[in-house]
């Protein structure tokens, strides 16, 4: 055994990770249908007005507003209808004084007019005569060209996250694709002679690989592209081979091999091929967590126990990955409820304790670091500071929801 030389407080680990992030610079062109959630690489400037033409905002009649002055139900203004305009059409001739054109909502305004009278404010006359019952002013019920976006306007900024409405802006500009920052590729390497892939028959002393799949889900949910690799055996040769492949990615995440046993070799690889920034955090679960670099690639060494691994993925990996991907900080939902039962904690270590929400109370759900159901059957977790030995039943606690 090779005991921890020291552990650092959680706040120190968080600060060191924040200082180590180098936001991804690689840019790629992505088709419109795949843009949701991506991050804009460069400012986007409109090349044309949106909409590109003045259009009717109501069904009715396109008119010269001056022709409707003084119109009332008792003394309507009679105009001659000289055409009809539907969406997707353009009227060939201009509308002169004393004339009007029937028009549909969204249709381009004919030349010569400056207003639209709603159909409800008109009455049919003989032949092509339309009786206007209410006056309109210039610009009434008209959407001007460029009302939404003016040519030359900067409509998106580099660094903007493409929410659905912003994808709509890209479509409104007629762009079939856009330059965005690449999603960080995250190599996920489970380690351990005992770890095998689900779907494989278990041999004596073997367990299924849980962490590869929970980490993949975390990475994909927070802006990364997961690149799961084969399980690496507990040998320096196997870990070296895994690093050779993983180093092509933007981030490497090991699970297992980061503790202090004789076969916990991730630290040896990290020290020999790169730099160890820290090893050991004063948390429970998740103490045997490491961070460093191999070349320019940041490396996380996560605990092998599934609950420890997933807890620190939420607390440490998610903020780092989102900053790497240029995404805004994750803002999980937090609710305040009373604790159903007393929870003891270890002084000197920040504890993350999973809870279920039952009948308006936070019911402790944590079982053990190796039990994935500690989290699968929980709704969230509470954070117990390192100077608190216990949280009594009935205490109001902040539950961070998964």
The proportion of residues in beta strands is 25-35%
| Tally of domains | 4
**For the terminal residues, how far apart are their CA atoms?**
35 Å
Instruction: Based on the coordinates given, report the CATH architecture of the largest domain.
Output: 3-Layer(aba) Sandwich
Q: Strand arrangement, largest sheet?
A: 7-4-6-5-9-8
What is the alpha-carbon Rg in Å?
Answer: 32 Å
CATH superfamily of the largest domain: MoaB/Mog-like domain
- Could you give the count of β-strands? 28
What's the overall geometry?
elongated
Sheet of most strands: 6 strands, mixed
> Which consecutive residue ranges, at least 5 long each, have pLDDT under 50?
none
The CATH topology of the largest domain: Molybdenum Cofactor Biosythetic Enzyme, Chain A
- The helical percent reads 10-25%
The overall pLDDT, averaged over residues, is 95
Structural write-up:
- This protein folds into 4 domains: 10-26 and 183-324, Molybdenum Cofactor Biosythetic Enzyme, Chain A; 27-50 and 147-181, Molybdopterin biosynthesis moea protein, domain 2 (Alpha-Beta Complex); 55-143, Molybdopterin biosynthesis moeA protein, domain 3; 334-401, Beta Barrel (Beta-clip).
- The protein is an alpha/beta fold.
- Helix content is 18%, strand content 30%.
- The protein is built from 7 helices and 28 strands.
- The mean pLDDT is 95.
